[in-house]
């Protein structure tokens, strides 16, 4: 690959998912000159069988912005099938946005990219928590899948350029308490309640306990910026962030915007760790983890400072702080319905769909 490589034909896999939709929408709305010539979405066949469905309306809206559609099934398509898809579309860059439930299919997809004649650059679905933050990361049960992929890439991938875009927790999702396990953190404006983890060192009370976040829209901005800086990104795990704040600062912003005082429940870190033991069913000879175990563990990692760096990579991508979301904007969006209410402009243009 030459040093002046620029993405031309980009394929996004999982581009209608929770974070994928933000990435797809951000890429399509990127300022000119866009960091690609064509952008295509890999999605299941039959996506347009019900034109009234939200997914059909969203993809049709994106098509009006220039998106192309390629159909296939991530689960059933084998490595050779993906290689054929890549070569027929002449895709030189692939962005994976697969969710946690489908991450197990990434190795065959990246192997297909490695063996294709067209794909030069691959961005795995690494958005979120840094799985290689420190020596303790390897023992975190939430990191197993992504660490296995990194190992696979180190051992099996030789030709392909790979970039991980590590965003830390999505602020938009962190604000929502986990149903039934609210003590792991979150805000309920309708009830004027806040739940925070006390790390046992008084940091929550002192306004410490900082967490580095990305809003979901900013994840899309950072991926777009990554495509504009290929050679600076090759072979790296880029750590990017919207802002770094404490739970106390988030609480203050909620109280400011709502004009109300919140009732705050603080849960000591040891209690969260005990809850993890139960949810992961670690004392059982045949563990059956609770589906919520992952989310409780991640919140504990974040509360312990697992999102903080001496320096992030925003500058590497030439992303300016004034172009990113602020705490104020993140809270305002949450109060307006949050990421669960995001339509990516579909409602605004629904009359044309």
Description of the structure:
The protein has 353 residues and is α/β, with parallel strands linked by helices. Helix content is 33%, strand content 14%. The chain has twelve helices and 13 strands. The strands form four sheets. The protein has a six-stranded parallel sheet, sandwiched between helices. The chain is globular and about 55 Å long.
Helix coverage percent: 25-40%
State the CATH class of the largest domain. Alpha Beta
Cα shape: globular
Strand ordering within the main sheet? 3-2-1-4-5-6
Please describe the structure with a list of short key phrases separated by commas or semicolons:
single chain; about 350 residues; alpha/beta; Rossmann fold; 2 domains; 3-stranded mixed beta sheet; 13 strands; about 35% helix; oxidoreductase activity; PCBER-like; NmrA-like; oxidoreductase
Write a brief caption for the model.
With 353 residues, this protein is an alpha/beta fold. It has 12 helices and 13 strands.
């Amino acid at each position: 690959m030459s040093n002046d490589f620029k993405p031309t034909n980009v394929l996004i896999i999982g581009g209608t998912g929770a974070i994928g939709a933000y990435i797809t929408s951000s890429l399509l709305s990127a300022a000119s000159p866009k960091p690609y010539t064509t952008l295509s979405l890999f999605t299941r066949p039959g996506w347009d069988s019900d034109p009234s469905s939200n997914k059909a309306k969203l993809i049709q809206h994106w098509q009006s912005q220039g998106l192309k559609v390629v159909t296939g099934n991530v689960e059933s398509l084998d490595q050779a099938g993906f290689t054929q898809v890549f070569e027929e579309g002449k895709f030189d860059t692939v962005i994976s946005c697969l969710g946690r439930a489908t991450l197990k299919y990434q190795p065959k997809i990246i192997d297909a990219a490695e063996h294709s004649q067209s794909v030069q650059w691959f961005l795995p679905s690494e958005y979120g928590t840094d799985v290689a933050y420190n020596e303790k990361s390897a023992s975190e049960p939430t990191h197993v899948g992504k660490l296995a992929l990194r190992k696979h890439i180190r051992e099996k991938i030789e030709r392909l350029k790979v970039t991980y875009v590590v965003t830390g927790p999505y602020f938009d999702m962190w604000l929502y308490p986990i149903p039934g396990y609210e003590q792991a953190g979150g805000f309920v404006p309708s009830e004027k309640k806040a739940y925070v983890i006390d790390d046992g060192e008084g940091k929550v009370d002192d306004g410490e306990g900082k967490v580095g976040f990305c809003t979901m829209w900013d994840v899309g901005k950072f991926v777009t910026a990554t495509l504009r800086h290929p050679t600076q990104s090759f072979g790296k795990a880029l750590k990017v962030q919207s802002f770094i704040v404490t739970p106390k600062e988030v609480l203050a912003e909620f109280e400011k915007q709502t004009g109300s005082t919140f009732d705050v429940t603080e849960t000591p870190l040891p209690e969260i760790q005990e809850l993890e033991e139960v949810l992961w069913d670690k004392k059982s000879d045949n563990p059956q983890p609770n589906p919520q175990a992952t989310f409780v563990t991640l919140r504990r990692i974040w509360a312990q400072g697992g999102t903080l760096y001496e320096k992030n990579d925003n500058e590497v991508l030439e992303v300016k702080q004034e172009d990113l979301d602020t705490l104020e904007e993140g809270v305002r969006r949450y109060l307006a319905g949050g990421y669960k209410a995001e339509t990516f402009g579909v409602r605004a243009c629904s009359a044309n769909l």
